[in-house]
Specification:
The protein has about 130 residues and is α+β, with helices and mostly antiparallel strands. It has four helices and six strands. The chain is globular and about 40 Å long. The protein binds coenzyme A.
């Protein structure tokens, strides 16, 4: 990623997710990697992965005008392939339990619900921990 793209990544995360996983993990002891999907030189979407003992996908975000074209799926696949290439045999992510569509979406890519993490997003806001096994 080029230096001037860091700002674009943070802006896009805030615009679509209302927070930046990239910023949040920057102060923590993780390795991290950003995957970009570009269309005509413009960033159409991104995913942020980070790892130490476990490999996790922290965010996947695609600009509205580029959705439903397989970009999100290809970004998740890039994360999985990268995790495999550096020796991981599983990939983890969290999804809010009330995001049924997103849970199904990840299931279509081979992720399975592993556990419920209570209050993960705040009081009463639980998450599923989902895992993809290679
Ligand atoms: C989820 C998201 C990354 C999918 O990107 P995409 O490039 O449109 O996805 P693909 O083209 O690979 O696949 C389309 C599928 O995405 C899912 N999807 C589309 N919009 C969605 C939304 N707003 N919320 C949840 N899932 C959505 C659907 O399952 C859709 O399949 P369907 O047409 O059978 O319903 C994109 O909708 C997005 O950026 N949403 C907002 C941010 C978000 O929720 N990120 C995930 C958590 S970090």
């Amino acid at each position: 990623m080029k230096d001037d793209e860091v700002e674009d990544v943070i802006d896009l995360e805030y615009e679509i997710l209302g927070l930046s996983v990239f910023v949040n993990i920057s102060t923590k002891p993780y390795h991290k990697k950003v995957f970009l999907a570009e269309v005509n030189g413009e960033i159409a979407g991104l995913s942020v992965a980070y790892w130490n003992d476990e490999f996790k996908i922290g965010s996947v975000a695609v600009k509205e005008e580029y959705r439903n074209q397989g970009i999100g799926r290809s970004l998740v696949k890039k994360c999985i392939e990268f995790a495999r290439s550096i020796g991981f045999d599983s990939v983890w992510l969290e999804v809010a339990v009330n995001q049924a569509r997103l849970v199904s979406y990840y299931k279509t890519m081979g992720f399975r619900i592993h556990d419920v993490i209570k209050h993960y997003y705040g009081i009463g806001k639980h998450a599923y921990s989902m895992v993809y096994r290679m």
